[in-house]
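Help wanted!
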Amino acid sequence: MYLPDFEYLAPRTLDEACRLLSDYGSEAKILAGGTDILVKMKGGLLAPKAVISLKYLDDLRGIRYVPDRGVVIGARATPNEIMDSPVLHERYLSVSEAAHTMAAHQIRNRGTIGGNIVNAVPSADLPPILIALGATITLVGSGGERSMLLEDFFTGVCETVCTVGEIVTEVVIPDQPTTGSTYHKFALRRAGALAVVGVAAAVTMDDGVVRDPRIVLGAVATTPVRAPEAEELLEGRVPTDAILEDVGVIAASGCCWPINDIRGSEEYRRDLVRVFTRRALKRAINEGHV
Amino acid sequence: MQAISDAQGISRYLVNLTVNGDPFTKVVKANTLLVDLLRNELDLTGTKKGCDLGSCGSCTVLMDGKAVDSCLILALEAEGTEITTVEGVAEHGELDKLQRSFLDSAAVQCGYCSPGMILSAKALLTRNPHPTEHEIREAIAGNLCRCTGYVNIVKAIQTVADGPDEDSAPTAGEVTA
Amino acid sequence: MSAEQPSPATTQGPPEGGYAVIGKSVSKIDGREKVTGAAKYTGDLKLPNMLYGKILTSPHAHAKILSIDTSEAEKLPGVKAVITHKDAPTLKYGISPARWDENVFCIDKVRFVGDKVAAVACIDEETCYRALAAIKVEYEVLPAVLDPLKAMDEGQPQVHDEYPRNINTEIHQDFGDVEEAFRKADYVRTDTFVGNRTYQSPIEPHSAISVWEDGKLTVYSSTQSPHYFQYYIAREFGLPMGDVRVLKTYVGGGFGGKLEPTGLEFGGAILARITGRPVRMFYDRHEMFAHNRGRHRQYMTVTTGVDADGTILGVHADFIMDGGAYTSLGIATAYYAGAMLTLTYEFDNFRFDMHRVYTNLPACGAQRGHGAPQPRYAFESHLDNIAKDLGLDPMDIRIRNARRPDTITPNEFKVNSCEMKACLEEARELSEWDKKKGKLPPGRGIGVATGSFVSGAGYPIYRTDLPHAAAMIKVAEDGTAATLYTGATDIGQGSDTVLSQMAAEAMGYTYEQMKIVAADTETTPHDFGAYASRQTLMSGAAVKQAGEEVKQQLLEVAAEMLDYPVADLDIRSGKIFAPGNENVSLDFTDAARRFFVTRGPLVGKGSYTPPKLGGTYKGAPVGTSPAYSFAAQVSEVQIDEETGEIDVLDVWDVHDCGQVINPALLHAQVHGALYMGMGESIWEEVLFDSKGRIINPNLGEYRLPTALDMPRIHSSLVESYEPAAPWGVKEVGEGATLPTMGCFRNAIFDAMGVSVNSLPLSFEKVWRALKAKREEQST
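Answered by r_m:
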């Protein structure tokens, strides 16, 4: 396979990058880790006139805790950096574990959280847990900066609110009272496999009662989706096995729109949603952020 | 980054990188991949091409010590980095511990995955000198092998991981599998 | 060599003091090159002035070619040649002589998505892609036949006009009296199973470099058999064999998929001739999938009649296999599918019916186990069903029926050594079968299956009286090295190492001083190459003979030097000695040097032809072999009852493979064969869309197991000695692939009481079976 020809640009500052993006418009694509864009270009799905590399934008790297903001993850943080981050281990191990499920070691050294989010493949592994933890995302363009809930970022398969000319700069997990969260990925082999179904759950336990449960389903709709009816059933309840089973049933029957493809049938995926919603909640309730 | 246009109007760029300790400056196109720079420009054919899409790991090299799939990295993205290929593992013709362990454990059959495996293993042992079996399997899960079932490869890496930190070779010529 | 073949058999077992070289896990002779990156595979080679070439393939499963316009491609800078069928010989070819059904480039129509239409030679790889994109082909799309179960129906599109109803191979074999056996049986059961279309997917892509000079052709190829490549390339271009040289450097795995020349060799040769420059042709991974020649998907109905105690009385196997658009090795595959069923269990009555059909899908050929693994899955699963119906332990029923040594199968395969029963008993013990069967916690199960495979095919792929293997050894003038010349082909399995050990053993020399030159039709003597697990036995027999010839000549000179009777001398590990007389001692090197000075080069020659084997019925040659390996596998699995996820915990493989030349390499082969069996059992399947295009021609969605997916593997052997083989050796490279699919299905059956009747045994299929079972139980 080969890559088509293109101009390679490697801006030294974020401002420069935004300017270039603005100049080239839809004729340019951002190159972060390259694990997605180069695959698409080799497959003939993309042929940008220019590629703007983020290689020199060190401001976009790093994972740190910032008081009054929360855990700030630079857009260029790689899945391995997320997996190994002491900051995340301390506060939200579930996010590290979600990164751990991605691809394989070599890809995890190059992929980025920004890329994983912006590419918006429905089976992406980072969005569900981040959404469950109420994460926000920041975009910067020539027109300035804006932030929003990650939950509101996705609009369709490989579609987001990010406009041509904007770059993702960071993802922030705000300080919060949640007591536990986890991400369950079901895939067909133990490495190098996309999620057939992904379920993230976050809860705040209050004296044995579940508050503010968040259930986010991945790979079973055009975007990651919350399961509001299922969450409603659990809100304020003591989470018995029977209730958790019912929550799973509702999530499976009413909150997702899985498709039939070579990785699984719709029927199978729905049942997996049922099972993993229950299992993810159980862990988040009993084990903290895992 | 200076670009010069060639006769067809395609830009060519200079890239500077260190490979196995040697500095190189090469002229490449934007679409030149690191794996092709290594194999075609530097004649380092130890790094292999198996799938073009980052699924098989036979193109694994170390970039600033981290194991990466060189088929998904532009040569220009390697600007200013230190690359280690399999040719850079042995020093002064002496096989390193891992290479010797691969031989002693019968971990090499057709050999096509071996360069990538050895580098993934090297990266692992550098960041984690005494990994568990699970950690070893994780480290090489991105390297596909069709010949060995990974059994002896894991054994080879485990032997080095469990062994003394100083260099000590098992009896030459006798495989311990 | 004389027509009277000296038997390669030796007296049983090792001499006093054991063998000097064989039986030892010496380090691979080519290991260092492989771990340092020095090993050059075909795609690593650069010849001066070399061009790069690629093939344009069809986007349609079935279409007439109306026109091909190469003018735009030819104009592109850097494009040196563009060829189509107009530039190629129109002689049809194929690896199976009974079915020459392929053209170098399609002439009137294309028969599958991926069929060869044109080729280009360019100054670099990138230009090749652009050149291919610039070739304009006009097609008239035809209806395609994509369902092998419909392929024989009236009115279906015909893939090849010469083969009506798309029947490529039809087999009806009948041994004993199956009807009578079924009448006499206490119990008769029929089951149907479906296999999966899988692909060898070696990690190294196909690659070939052609050099045409002065009317002579040299081909470097990633090949399993320089000989077959040489033979078929010479035939295609009307050249004497002596004008075609085929050689391999290193090969990154073949598993059956690199046994026949492809468009890369044929097209590359033409491009090299036209341009006058070397041309390296290559496939990308998705092109490899399209080229295929992988495992046939088989639809298998088996009926067996047994006594109440489980003794098998007769078997009827009725199969259909999807051959794809061309024959490749498929005729042999079709015969092997039935032939191998009679080996592991003894029964006298066997009927085998087979239809191999053409479809407009990539052609299928020989993949590790060659046609036998899926039938093994079917029969082993079927046997477990019978065992369950009769209330018998699956291990017991197999031990009851296990084949014994020195028996003949109903299809007339002569089995000498056979330790099937010992393999089962050992597997039973190692796996703690009796402690576990019926006593495991919920969701956990244990299953058993057997397999057997040929140690080389009794007859070559095309009819010839050539010996199957030949070897030469040249001892250096001062005896400090010896070089083995063999046509045997190391594709990763380690034949270079193992044959070097055998040469050293036969000569009384040391392995460390051996050198090897292999698989080059110009310098090495004829050998059919790596397939049907033939090389340890067959190439080994030739090597042994060559080594013994060296030894004999050396002992004659030594006898003179020592003034000692030659019959009382022996050589071991480079030292000539007289057993029982410690005063007699002479170095190999001294004797060798004396030999050269007084008599000239010290050279040994050997060759091997198997004895005439098998019956006289149609297809009798396929399945014949001088020796058969036997294996029993037990697996323990844990099933997630809610999701169907299969966690294979342990696999025990117990093999009867005769004398082991290199234990480490042998177990490594078991690991690999089992690994491929595992992949095909649970994960691998080539999938197509409604237009015959492969949906998953990549290593992301065609799932090879990763290091994290593997169980604990326990590989062990039983003692065994094969009289028809040098030092008693047998095969191992394919034997461990056979039992795996049935073994896993049986473990799942034991764990959950559900049968997955098609491969792969995917998580979803287990989930579905469990769901169906729950629904059945609640109604």
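OP: Thanks! One thing I noticed: Chain A is about 35% helix and 25% strand.
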